[in-house]
Request: fold
Amino acid sequence: MFYTLKIKKSGFKLLLAAIIIALCVALFFIFRAEKKDVFARENVCPSLVIDPGHGGVDGGAIALNGAKESDINLAIGLRLEKLAAFCGVHTVMTRTDDNMRTDMDSYSEHDELVRRTDITNSTPSACLISIHQNFYPTSQPSGAQVLYAGTSGSREFGELTHKNIIDKLQPENRRVAGPAAKELYITSHINCPGILVECGFMSNFSDLEKLSQKEYQNTFALVLLGSYLQYKNAYS
Reply:
């Protein structure tokens, strides 16, 4: 029987409150700038492209309890989209549901990655956040990791996001942000700042328990949004 660890609701509420406070502080620093600074920045990375990895017949990593990576990616991506809209951020989604490809015979992973890359590159002055989950043959590895593209600004965006994830969500995490492998198509072919976020390990029971909870998904999405807003302000 699949065993999961319970997370105390009170702890989650305190964590969520801390994240909201951090986001408010970030928003304060963004909007306290003089008008001339606001006008100068308004056309820098105004659009956030959200890429929930996999989808359709491509479920990505599959946990022992049958949970699909593609479902968790989409859940976090949709929550990020809603939070961004609340803050007035324009977003572009590479997918909004799980119905993109249902026929295995007609599915091409390469063509799908090209399509998502084209969406990103056709979005003017964009930043990309590609959402994924990690997997390992054993259950020991855990924790999120941010990988950044080779484009200008991606390293700063990635390191900032990774630091926020550790500071606000995973203080025990000892992973570091790093460059995305050349084999990762989207991060190797985009023309804008972009990061790929491995939110946790589907193969780790504790990670999977958290990643499957709506509260944690919402909190993770909030950290991603706060990181994007901080990056837009600090590095644009």
About this structure: The two ends are 50 Å apart (CA to CA). The chain has a mean pLDDT of 86.
